[in-house]
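User: Structure tokens for this complex, please. No commentary.
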Amino acid sequence: QSVLTQPPSVSAAPGQKVTISCSGSTSNIGNNYVSWYQQFPGTAPKLLMYENNKRPSGIPDRFSGSKSGTSATLGITGLQTGDEADYYCGTWDSSLSAAVFGGGTKLTVL
Amino acid sequence: QVQLQESGPGLVKPSETLSLTCTVSGGSMSSYYWSWIRQPPGKGLEWIGCLYYGGSTNYSPSLKSRVTMSLDTSNNQFSLKLTSLTTADTAVYYCARGRVGGSFWGQGTLVSVSS
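Assistant:
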């Protein structure tokens, strides 16, 4: 059971938009920055978003991040088949003094 | 460009201790957090712990009693020791720069716990 809650799967058609939610509490998302990772099978996770809504160099602006209260959201517009991957949210938990991840969301581009 | 590379045994016996090393190249270790994260086959990411360049550490509450992390700045390396292994510790182990992962990750190393 992950501290952060993500939907196990989401799907949408190519060209459409999808959002992935990440729900936590005041001790984690509510008071700390959220980052998002994209992971393809057999490869290491790749940073997509940091400090809630900042994109590292090289990440297209089709990817966006937001945070409100104890929840965060990753948005992807103009979906491409190459976006099919697992997506994870992560943050620091001040009560645990530990980092926590969501269980991951599998994105299918139909 | 910063690169990280994990090294260590691919197979360990139950009850034994796992020792992994992460070698950092292309950048300094100073002023950064360094973390270990693992992923059991077919499952999600699990944070193991992190250490700061200055020496402070934080460990996952569920693994704290079995984990030790240390830094070897002279060789640009940091390491993980996990004791009393069980089959549940079978996973791909990643090292990364940052407290919650970050921009730079190693490619991961599969550790299987089996007799």
